[in-house]
Amino acid sequence: MAKRLYRAGIFTTEQLYAVEPKHMRKLWGNVTGERLWYALHGYDIQAPTSNRGMFGHGRVLPPEARSIDGAHEISRLLLTKAARRMRREAYYANGLWLWLSMRDGSWMGKRRLPVVNDDQAILGALADLWDQVRQKFSRGVTIFRVGVTLYDLSPANERQLDLLLNDDRLRQRWERASSTVDRLNARYSNTVVSLGHWNPPKGGHVGGKISYTRIPSAEDFW
Asked: I want to staple 207 with a disulfide (CB 3.0 to 4.6 A). Which of 9, 81, 156, 180 is the partner?
């Protein structure tokens, strides 16, 4: 954005303030620029509510976790944190994305989900993606960064289930189990219960770092 402003001959706050609103729209490439102009000039501008598109976390791996097994373990923690956030905001996911940054490039895998939000279904899909990684890199690989994303979201009150893959009793039980785990962790403000082993890397706070797109909540640091 700074480069765009410089190309337009705008180098100071005073120059930005003097720009016409339509020109601000052009610089930003959308109506956000014009809204910013009115906000800068004292108008009470309320941005429209945006729809949630995904929940995800990423992390640069410490040296001791740059193997497939180490990266898998940390990705489980990251995905569990993302799933907790998703449940708190009352969403379900229809897709899971795993991204790895490696010494000689990157790898990405996706898996469809049957519109779920419980840890068992989501972590099971993640395990399937890691099976693909192990098959592709059977001799091992050095992984520097891992990212997980739950996408194709549906609000809980607008959930569209597959006609041929509706909820069964087992899925409903896992959803209740995840809700119970969330309540216990909220009660003690810590991860006291989890599905599977919970062993954060050195430094802790998996999924709780400051983001460029949102302000983390206290729950992100549990």
From this structure: 81
DSSP string, 92-110: EEEEEEEEEEETTEEEEEE
Q: Quote the Cα angle for 78-215-54, to 5°.
A: 50
Kindly report the pTM of this predicted structure.
Answer: 0.69
pLDDT tens across 43-68, in order?
887 765 556 789 999 999 999 999 99
Identify whether the C-beta of residue 58 lies closer than 8 Å to the C-beta of residue 78: yes
d(CA 149, CA 141): 22
* Cβ–Cβ < 8 Å for 73, 65: yes
Query: Tell me: the pLDDT tens digits for 78-123?
Result: 999 999 999 999 999 999 999 999 988 899 999 999 889 999 999 9
Specify the DSSP element, H or E, that contains 60: strand 54-60
Q: Strand, helix or coil at 171?
A: helix
Distances (CA, A) of 142 to 86, 97, 127, 177: 30, 20, 19, 35
- Residue 125's closest CA among 194, 75, 185? 75
